[in-house]
Amino acid sequence: MIARLNHPDYDRWANQIKRTGGCRQPIHLRGKVDHYDPATGHLLHRYTTRTEPDGILRVPCKTRRASRCPACAETYRADTYHLIRAGLVGGKGVPETVTTHPTLFVTLTAPSFGAVHTRREHNRKAQPCHARRNATTCPHGRVMSCNARHGKDDPRLGEPLCPDCYDYTGSVPEPDLAELRLADWAHMLGFRGHFSTRSRHYSTTLGDIRADREHHARLNDITTGRLPLFDEDTVLVISEWEYAGKGHSLGDQLLAAAITGTQLGGVHDL
Fold it and tell me: 242, 30 in Cβ contact below 8 A?
């Protein structure tokens, strides 16, 4: 930690940490981005991670699970809020006439339609999820048992022991599917999909929201001189990236928490 604080490129490292939004396990990328004049082939500008701290660029992991990374999960939560809000009241390219559309909120009781990972306690001690001495094997080759003692934040909780066996469509009565015209949506009810995968039919999309954020970040980079002012439609952009790892060292994690005001992760995050 002392070495990081005293290093000449500390300010640039701290700027990378801020740009990740406090991500607990940022992805490390190594590579370059070249801008060429398509008519002459002349190199107009090059960005390379060789000049970055540790020779890498740190970017957010973008997980949806708060147990893995609270900062990225919060970004996803906020994006989803705006997606739902636009679908209800308009905005972000969605007309206000959307307020005249009927609104339904469908909830399902997942455990009734197949075995799912669960947490049971006895005398305040976690019990095996689905312990079976003579467990059967489902048609898809999965053993229908689980001896894990799941923690409260285990991401597997609620997920089917076998996603292929789980009766997603059956979780909504057939008459309701026909009446509510949900047959085309049944594939994503449960754990196989997500309501946002069809959001363009009733709202904006997470892709559009993220594109707006990236556009704002690019304008900021141009304003601060980090990127050249090029019309992306008039230059040839060639990128080369490779995965170089993820996460922080213990010292870097302490500094990142202080810089971004985020909580420290567990030992498994280091």
Answer: yes
As a whole number of angstroms, the distance between CA 162 and CA 166 comes to: 6
Query: pTM surpassing 0.70?
Result: no
Long-range contacts of 232-235 (CB under 8 A, 24+ apart): 234/38, 235/35, 235/36, 235/37, 235/38, 235/44
Which residue ranges of the chain lie beneath pLDDT 70? Answer: 106-112, 168-199, 201-202, 224-233, 264-270
Give the separation between CA 160 and CA 163, rounded to whole angstroms.
5
User: Which among 152, 144, 164, 141 is positioned nearest to 118, based on CA atoms?
Assistant: 152
Calpha distance 117→140 (Å, rounded): 17
Average pLDDT of the chain to the nearest whole number: 80
Tokens at 211, concatenated: 């594109």
**Taking the chain, what is the end-to-end CA distance rounded to the nearest angstrom?**
14
Helix (H, G, I), strand (E, B) or coil at 236: strand
